[in-house]
Amino acid sequence: MRTVERRYWGAFVLITCCFALWGFANDVTNPMVKGFSKIFRMSVTEGALVQVAFYGGYFCMALPAALFIRRFSYKAGILMGLGLYAAGALLFLPAAKTGSYWPFLAAYFILTCGLSFLETTANPFILSMGEAETATRRLNLAQSFNPIGSLCGMFVAMNLIQARLNPLSSAERAALDDASFEAVKAADLAVVVKPYAAIGIVLAVFFVLMLLVRVPERGAGDSGLSRAFGPTVRRLLANRAYREGVLAQFFYIGAQITCWTFIIQYGTQVFMAEEMGEQAAEVLSQRYNIAAMILFCASRFVCTALMQRFRPAAMLRAFAAAGIALLLVVICVGGRVGLYSLVGVSACMSLMFPTIYGLALKDVGPDAEIGSAGLIMAILGGSLLPPVQALIIDGGHVALSFVVPLACFGAVLAYAWRRRFFDSAALRSK
Predict the structure, then answer these.
(1) What is the value of pTM for the model shown?
(2) CA atoms within a 13 Å half-sphere pointing along the CA-CB vector of 428
(3) Whole-number Å distance between alpha carbons of 78 and 74
(4) For 348-394, what is each residue's pLDDT tens digit?
(5) Nearest-10 Cα torsion for 41, 58, 324, 270
(6) What pLDDT does residue 278 have?
(7) Which domains does the chain have, with CATH numbers?
(8) For residues 2 and 414, what is the distance between their CA atoms, to the nearest angstrom?
(9) Buried-most residue among 35, 132, 219, 323 (CB within 10 A)?
(10) Do 326 and 341 meet the contact criterion of CB atoms below 8 Å apart?
(11) What is the rounded average pLDDT of the residues 220-234?
């Protein structure tokens, strides 16, 4: 039996590329918290507004995206997502001309409204491209390209942005007169803009290709999508396992983004304590961030194999507990040992998003489409929690700041533990 029907091969390749495209956007953005803090001579807290704008777009657009594809089609949802993503990326060009920080935040918000459309649409779209018996295999194949995009984003951030910014340290930038600072800032913004402009052009090409390719036009007529919105939301809110799953996803995303964003600050502090220059320390820290992503990818394949023998909720409990232990080393031990432990946290995170996603939607039946939008909206955790950690870093406590993802892992562990009782109650009711 074919994984993808022959008539949909072109559409499958294009949509699978979308998984890589939003992975690229996520991981080219994380280092920009540190980057914009230096470029605009801001605090880490102000720099973390990048993540507020980025993940705020996910939150605001997930539910409208679900309603949009219910009203129109999967293809329309993908086109809308690509269009918004491209528009946001290309808006970096006029943002750089202004020399101001806020236009970049607006561009990030528009860009991630597009990502929200893509994520909300792409998963069910891939599922529709063939027989139901091969749907899971088809989706796993497409999802495997997401971390490839993430690694490309990290490579671009390290080699085409961070390494090419002016090597002046934050302290040296603070000492510049206004004219010199503006010249350095303009040059740095020109470096930042180029990769985003390039991805904007790539997205425009994908948009045209998507217009031309034949795709399955299922979705608007599916039984799940045609259900009344109000009753669907009420049923979901009444489902405790789903409701708490959304909350767990909120905290997981918060943990993921804080660990991957502030590994740069943590590593920079470690290497500067070894008398390394600030820019060299930042570039080396980004290499550790790439190592964390490689470990994340490898762990995902291992976890997939382990799930043939262990229950997902049990694995979620074990990996959340391991993440807590590693973060305690980050906070209490520090140094290179703490940095290695912070890299190791990524292995613990690899199974969490899809596992929480699956557990939360396990018993929602045909309400899964709107339920999926709720879980995408939980990405708001990546917007609200980084500024909390940044405040602690600005207070001079880089290692201690990882108490934020530590608490997030505690919430995930609590959900995984409570899931045992949800499953037991379900069995008793049968």
Answers:
(1) 0.75
(2) 6
(3) 6
(4) 998 888 788 778 877 776 676 678 788 888 888 887 888 899 889 98
(5) -20
(6) 77
(7) 1-225 (1.20.1250.20), 227-430 (1.20.1250.20)
(8) 40
(9) 323
(10) yes
(11) 61
pLDDT tens-digit series, residues 109-133: 999 999 989 888 887 777 667 665 5
Per-residue pLDDT tens digits for 146-155: 878 888 888 8
pLDDT digits (tens, 9 = 90+) for 53-95: 888 888 888 888 888 887 888 888 889 999 999 999 999 999 9
Q: What tokens appear for 47 in the block? A: 């720099």
**Locus of tokens 């961070």:** 162
